[in-house]
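Human:
Care to share another protein and its fold?

Assistant:
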Amino acid sequence: RRPTARMARFLLALLLGETSALVMRAGAAVGLRMRGGSPVATIALDEASEALPFVTLTNAAGDSAKVYPFGACVTSYVKGDTDYLMVRPDAVVDGSKPISGGIPFCFPQFGPGAMQQHGFARNLHWEIASQTDGDAPSVVFKLTDNEYTRAMWDFPFEALYTVTLGAEALSTEFKVINTGDSELAFTGALHSYWSVSDISNLQIAGPFEGATYLDKLSDTRLASTSDFVEISKPTDSVYEQVGGEVSLLDSGRKTSLKIASEGWTDTVVWNPYGEEKMGYAKFVCVECAKAIMPIVVAPTAEWVGKMSITPITL
């Protein structure tokens, strides 16, 4: 017998540990629980108010992050009064296509190639594997191989994606485990859409000077001559071996967004300059990536990529 909607909601609530988390129903607001008169962090599942279910993490300071199990896509990170992520105005958030905004996945392929653009991870529903509440609430999403994935990429695997909302930063950890008996190889990225006051106010600072980058629009390899990147035209550049720490300096907001990474060794900068329908002036994609040389994972081994985002007032 097919489960009822009520039973489905109950099972999802069990996955998130409803006994220790605030679970939203349609029309209910996210709130902070109180412990001894002080607010504490919460994890909230809403599977009724939108076309797709989503999870909201809230910490004691009132910061929040919103994540859809569809694509394991983080679409909002609010600290103070600012959402540091953006969903494009032309995005569709109903499961019919990948979400154009937030932090969508490119896995197990970056860009075009043998399979669909940017791979399959961003248009599949990930399982909510576990959740941890407390001062830094977190949720773990899981994706494993199935008939659909093996038709494009014939490897057994388990992918775990952990999203943690800390007091000062939002952190992600992406782990790929080879569950097969032969090597697997992939490329990937966190195709992050960072909100900006205006693209003309933005400088991207990092160890770019001297780095080789692929200008994908002209299909040429060039050498960067500065540690600062500004956007004044359509841009799609892959900076090889530029990782570690990159900052988005926004003179309009008077903020710096520090993007720190481990495992991701390349940085992609993308903006569809001039495309009003995409909202080009209000975001930039600065992506932690492994886009040039594939990651090779031996049988039973794993690869881990980490990213943390820390807003800083200038």
